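Handout, section B. The chain below has 97 residues.
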Amino acid sequence: MFPKLKLTQHYQQGSALIIGVFVLTVMFLLAASLIRIVGDADESVNMEVWGTRALFSANSGADAALAQLFPINGTVANCANVSSTWIPPSNAVGFHN
């Protein structure tokens, strides 16, 4: 009935195996690149958190120096009165000594 059909099926034996290996290889490469992208994004978020903490720490130090320079009682202060070190209060919540 279809004499050429048997001939084309004979030549196509094993092509599904080649296509399967190719698809698996492509999927593996896509998964590997996705894992790398997610890892890079995670590292970027960590760096952003560390940068924000450093900024807030620097602002806290500047605020502590300004509080010594301009006290609440309104007395005139001198820049020499501002100490270069800061000791956190012992009863403050959030400071780990």
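Note. The CA atoms of residues 7 and 13 lie 11 Å apart. Compare this with the example in section A.
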